[in-house]
Amino acid sequence: QVQLVESGGGLVQSGGSLKLSCAVSGSILSIIAMGWYRQAPGKQRELVAGITSSGSTIYADSAKGRFTISRDNAENMVYVQMNSLKPEDTAVYYCRAELRIGALDRHVWGQGTQVTVSS
Q: How many other C-beta atoms can be found within 10 angstroms of the C-beta atom of residue 116?
C-alpha cells in the first residue's frame, strides 16, 4: 500500500507563490506516476500537473507557465511550485499516486491541502 501526505497549503495573495509537498511512503516501487489535482467548491476534481516515473511531465492549460511539478526520489517527495497565483486557483489540492500492481492499475489519494488565493 502507498500513503500520501500533502502539506504546504495556505492563504496567499494574488500574484504570490506556494510550494506544495507530497510525502510518499509504502510500496513505492509500485508507483508509475504521480499527480497533483485540485477541486474547487462546486467543481469537479481536475488534474493540475503530473509526472511519470521516467520524469515526463504534463500540465493543465491553466497551470502551464506558472506551476512546476518535481520529485525527489531520494526523499520520496513530490512537489508542485505554484507561481503567479490567481483567485481561481483557490481549491483543495490533492496528491495522487498511480500504481501498477501486477496486471492491475490502482490509484491512491492524499487527504488534500487547502490553497486560498485572495484578490
A: 15
13: amino acid identity, one letter: Q
Helix/strand/coil (H, E, C) string of the chain?
CEEEEEECCEEEECCCCEEEEEEEEECHHHEEEEEEEEECCCCCCEEEEEEECCCCEEECCCCCCCEEEEEECCCCEEEEEECCCCHHHCEEEEEEEEEEECCEEEEEECCCEEEEEEC
Share of the chain above pLDDT 70, in %: 100
The cell 510500496 sits on which residue? 27
Residue 57 grid cell: 511531465
Question: Model confidence over 48-63: pLDDT tens digits?
Answer: 999 999 999 999 999 9
Q: Assess contact for 35 and 17: CB atoms under 8 A.
A: no
Looking at residue 27, its pLDDT comes to 87
Strands, sheet with 2-7, edge to edge from the N-terminal-most edge strand: 2-7, 18-26, 77-82, 67-72
